[in-house]
Design goal:
Three copies of one chain form a homotrimer.
Chain A lengths: L2 H10 L4 E4 L18 H13 L4 E5 L10 H13 L3 E6 L11 H17 L4 E5 L6 H5 L15 H20 L3 E5 L9 H11 L4 E4 L3 H4 L8 H8 L5 E4 L1 E6 L6 E6 L8 H10 L5 E4 L6 H20 L1
Parallel strand pairs in A: 1-2, 1-10, 2-3, 3-4, 4-5, 5-6, 7-10
Antiparallel strand pairs in A: 8-9
């Protein structure tokens, strides 16, 4: 498959809407690590995803790390996906920053391995970000995004390193006919709309774009950029899209700002408008539905019906 | 059509549930003002409303001001509505107070013009309120209702002026076989249940009633009147009904009060109960679904299914 | 019917999902007390429950107190339930603590009478708790759970009294082939997972278990035990289950904690996971759907569809 074909595929065959494996825990109730579990355990999760109506999956590596599987195990993964008739749209790497001061080079290496596996699985996209591992204080909190975390350094050297290493990934992705998507996340070099656009522009590769996961930003208990401005700036550069939504409460007199996870339809981000705007800007990538808090799979399934209805209503 | 027929129509033909055009922006993404746009642009919005299941629309003037259209353009509006098979139930005037110290007389004149157009479009109802234009601080806020705004003066002269000018509107509405509905809104003479009932009683015209848009009040980040008491007082005087709902968080120990927009089913106002109570009090007007924040049209569509189910369940 | 048969019934005939009569007021809009109303009034409520899709009901005594009905009236109740084809799964006694310092003995006597009626109505379960009547300050609040309330004494005498009196109930329930379920509720001896398990263990009767109504706990505006730990501890002892869900907002920097009632799917408690875990722990009791705030019946109906889908997806 050529790069062109890969890019055009989603639009030709209808939209790709993938379920993130984010709601599945990396260690199951019996204490077994999913990474080392027999492929039948993976099947159980995939079957649930399929029962909720999904035809595509994003192999989010908070559950399973395809890039750390042996070739034999990758074949097993491909086989159980095939058996469940679930197609892998993408692999999303979470908290594996290539500029992490401690593990940046390891993460680069892991990301490169993941690109190889993504190509073997016929994914169209790999998503990476610059956010760091959760701190122990974050892990103790009900909502980790309400706890401060390490910030990316703002100096030119860090910027250059990010451009360089993400370019390495981008070029390797291109060689493999893959899109590389950069996930927006607060307090990283992908933490504002302007910085995200500048980073993707500095990288300057056709197959590298943004993953405007604005849910990460609108849930913050602090002032944010206007949502409409973020959409206008980022959507023209978008090639993959993690979607989730939040209620956002702001009290102008006291300055209190709070959020709560909710369905795509009910949250503050108007996805009907955002999707329309993205498509007008030429977006043809895959959508990936995520949800943290409560029944992630259930809300993702509700969101699948919602997003499908929005996309169908555009065609009518 | 006689006034009697106009009043009876909704009940005869099943309930009228209109979509407010509130979710549509007055200036579209290409910078074009809807007011001056070709009628095909109006059609696009109406088609969306129809696709979401609505047979009726409330021409909310935050989107399009029918009262400021030329006769030729009003005909165009009637024609595109006919083409989309969407019937106009009402025109709602937003922030066009006839006692606004600056623009009260202009608003009176505009409201009178709007009544004429409403009659030409065969609407049953025109809704007006006493709330003022959003201040710049309100426009900057995520939720404008958390920012203080101009209050109506509480003196007898202002009250008399409100009664006089709304009576002018009411009598002209009656001449045109229209209902005039007064929208409840905080910090205006229609800001409490008692004041609203007194105002509509002082006006004393059969075709003038209340629009108990309690969503305006229950979303305030300050103490409110008990919802049940507002319903009991206002529903007997109700002739039109803007509906939207909110989560309402109150913390008794700290006094914190916060809200977030949500669906009619999930919010703090029990619409199943309120609708039942209204009908027992003889309500036979039209319902109008609104929603601010996020995907207004999507939530309104969800609310249409909810309200329809409630009304059907009463008949069963 | 033997005790064994009674316990096995729900599993044999598919899961029992009951609607609580909690959303119905004890005094209707005409001022009539439901307790003294003609049975046709009860029918009206039951018909609504049936229209919302329920085949089973929990006679929550905040609406109607079956234990205070005369034998003739109990027959009337059975008859209208039969006419509506609504089967009574359980009776839930609310705020009728058998260790209430003021009314404990009266409540014990009332609870014993209720067991008799539950058996006559062919319920499988009676649920009781140790929470006290709402104080006047609680009744004035929008959300009573944000106001402090009387706490159970923590001394050994109170504990022994609870064990003794609940054992009296449990043994009488066993004689009648009924399950007795103890509802978890903050600031009572059933207020933490550990205390609840210890209490049910100290009682030590096979037909006495827990009702892990964790909605009562997760809505509190103060720190709570980790939800997962509560589930792990309590589900193995669960024989009945009041279900409702809440958004839970926690701000780690300010310590602000707030909640709002929402649907089972959208709230912080992952019921898909919890139900799966319960069934793995051998749960075979009835589910009872509750909801406070707004349209309780509507949200319960939405929750019925959600829970049914979860249970079906487990079988698939």
């Amino acid at each position: 498959m050529t790069g062109e074909a890969s890019l055009a595929a989603p639009a030709e065959s209808g939209w790709v809407i993938a379920a993130a494996t984010l709601p599945f825990p990396p260690v199951d109730s019996s204490g077994e690590h999913i990474q080392d579990a027999p492929a039948e355990r993976w099947s159980t999760a995939f079957a649930q995803v399929v029962r909720e109506g999904f035809a595509w999956v994003d192999l989010t590596d908070s559950w399973l790390r395809p890039g750390d599987l042996s070739p034999a195990r990758v074949s097993e993964l491909a086989e159980v996906l095939r058996q469940e008739a679930l197609r892998p749209a993408a692999i999303s790497l979470i908290r594996r920053s290539v500029i992490d001061p401690e593990s940046g080079l390891d993460n680069l290496s892991y990301s490169l391995r993941t690109l190889e596996v993504a190509a073997q699985l016929h994914c169209s996209t790999v998503s990476v970000g610059l956010h760091r591992p959760l701190t122990s204080r974050q892990r103790e909190a009900l909502w980790f995004w309400t706890v401060d975390e390490p910030h990316d350094a703002q100096d030119p050297e860090t910027w250059a390193l990010a451009v360089e290493r993400l370019s390495v990934l981008g070029r390797h992705a291109a060689d493999l006919d893959l899109l590389l998507s950069l996930e927006m996340y607060e307090d990283t070099l992908l933490g504002t709309a302007a910085s995200s656009v500048r980073l993707v522009t500095d990288i300057g590769l056709e197959n590298v774009g943004l993953n405007p996961d604005l849910g990460n930003l609108i849930r913050l208990h602090r002032p944010i950029e206007p949502i409409e401005e973020m959409l206008e700036l980022c959507l023209p550069h978008t090639n993959y899209w993690h979607m989730k939504n939040y209620y956002r409460i702001e009290d102008s007199s006291s300055g209190v700002i709070l959020s709560a996870p909710t369905s795509m339809e009910l949250g503050v981000l108007n996805y009907r408008h955002a999707v329309d705007l993205a498509i007008r800007h030429g977006f043809s990538g895959a959508f990936c539905l995520e949800h943290y808090g409560g029944d992630g799979l259930g809300v993702m399934s509700t969101n699948l019906r919602y997003l499908t209805a929005i996309l169908q209503s555009r065609k009518a």
